[in-house]
């Protein structure tokens, strides 16, 4: 059997670096600084509500766009945080994670011959999903020293075939966040075009050092052409429940729902009901930035003697560390060496680029318990790194 050449090329022989690291990490009982899955116990009210929903018999398909009570509470949340009114009936869809929302949106809106601009390093799903539609991904590199998008380069990359621009802020893996200048340039570059913006905002509640998250939903001109993606898995430490959502104007959402209904039909029903219960109280998620900022600072502090050069991030779960002072290896080999020699799992930054060229950098995740972060930091500070 032939399989999909698109996915094969992305997976470099069929196996993702996440699977390779995951397997070796289990073998070596390694410290987990590689995974973007929070290792914390979820809110007890949330867990109890999920059990209760199962006991109450909510074990069949939910309505295709999601449990209405959840969509209503999400509409309130979006209005309160971003001043945007989305109609729960026609403009909000609950999905099987942010990932499904991205897949459904790209599949619904991008077609053969279209071009999609996105920024590298990039979360891994955008490029293969665009290719699977027979469309052309157009990656633009974010300079790692400034983390600022070069909007003149974006302007030059826009053609009559540009159908979508994918924005990811807060950004995985750099932690960069968009600012007002970015919003202004994006607004003027897309004005008068048919370009749709796919705005992946799954780390919306993890922004540090007093910075505010700029959501595409809060700028009416951009919101009118945007699909905005959020993840309840990331926000409530329940990534395995597979619940996220997207918001978009009704005519765009209609297209997305056509794909969503054949992809999964609906997200898990009891978890939607439980999440609706905890979302009613914003206190259940507004403290996340403080929580994760402390984690970020702890990992940085634990690595202050390390020869790895860590760059503090402004948001999200991840830090980038430059290892060129200690090794000439490719980032992929360095990750494998760290696993074997230090029993610490990390991810090579090259994984987030379509050209896969070595970067001299690795990604460290800090969505872990403090003792894991301290031990990971200690191991990464060994003099014989
Ligand atoms: C940037 C980005 N978007 C989307 C997702 C997927 O989110 P979910 O777990 O809700 O599917 C992730 C997960 O790591 C991510 O980092």
UniProtKB/TrEMBL annotation:
Keywords: Aminotransferase, Pyridoxal phosphate, Transferase. Coiled coil: none annotated. InterPro entries: Aminotransferase_I/II_large, Kynurenine-oxoglutarate_AT, PyrdxlP-dep_Trfase, PyrdxlP-dep_Trfase_major, PyrdxlP-dep_Trfase_small. It comes from the Bacteria. Its cofactor is pyridoxal 5'-phosphate. GO terms for cellular component: cytoplasm. One of its GO terms (molecular function) is pyridoxal phosphate binding. Residues 30-371 form the Aminotransferase class I/classII large domain. Belongs to the class-I pyridoxal-phosphate-dependent aminotransferase family. NCBIfam families: PRK09082.1, PRK12414.1. This is 2-keto-4-methylthiobutyrate aminotransferase. It comes from Paraburkholderia rhizosphaerae.
């Amino acid at each position: 059997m032939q399989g999909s050449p698109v996915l094969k090329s992305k997976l470099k022989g069929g196996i993702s670096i996440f699977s390779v690291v995951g397997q070796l990490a289990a073998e070596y009982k390694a410290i987990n600084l590689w995974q973007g899955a929070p290792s914390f116990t979820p809110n007890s009210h949330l867990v109890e509500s999920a059990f209760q929903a199962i006991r109450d018999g909510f074990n069949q398909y939910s309505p295709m766009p999601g449990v209405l009570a959840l969509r209503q509470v999400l509409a309130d949340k979006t209005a309160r945080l971003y001043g945007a009114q989305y109609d729960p009936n026609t403009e909000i869809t609950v999905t099987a994670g942010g990932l499904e929302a991205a897949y459904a949106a790209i599949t619904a809106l991008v077609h053969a011959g279209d071009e999609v601009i996105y920024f590298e390093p990039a979360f891994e799903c955008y490029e293969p999903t665009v290719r699977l539609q027979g469309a052309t991904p157009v990656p633009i590199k974010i300079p790692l020293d400034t983390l600022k998008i070069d909007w003149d380069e974006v302007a030059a990359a826009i053609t009559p075939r540009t159908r979508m621009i994918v924005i990811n802020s807060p950004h995985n893996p750099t932690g960069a966040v968009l600012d007002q200048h970015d919003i202004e340039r994006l607004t003027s570059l897309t004005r008068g075009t048919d370009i749709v913006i796919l705005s992946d905002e799954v780390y919306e509640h993890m922004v540090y050092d007093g910075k505010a998250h700029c959501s595409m939903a809060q700028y009416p001109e951009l919101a009118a052409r945007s699909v905005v993606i959020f993840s309840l898995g990331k926000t409530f430490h329940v990534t395995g429940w597979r619940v996220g959502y997207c918001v978009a104007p009704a005519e765009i959402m209609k297209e997305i729902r056509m794909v969503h209904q054949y992809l999964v039909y609906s997200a898990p029903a009891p978890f939607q009901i439980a999440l609706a219960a905890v979302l009613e109280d914003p206190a259940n998620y507004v403290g996340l930035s403080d929580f994760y900022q402390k984690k970020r600072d702890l990992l940085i502090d634990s690595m202050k003697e390390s020869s790895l050069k860590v760059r503090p991030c402004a948001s999200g779960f991840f830090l980038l560390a430059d290892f060129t002072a200690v090794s000439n290896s490719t980032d992929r080999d360095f990750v494998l060496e760290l696993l074997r020699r230090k029993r610490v799992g990390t991810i090579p930054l090259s994984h987030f680029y379509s050209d896969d060229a070595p970067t001299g950098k690795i990604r460290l995740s800090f969505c872990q318990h403090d003792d894991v972060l301290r031990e990971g930091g200690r191991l990464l500070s060994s003099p014989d790194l």
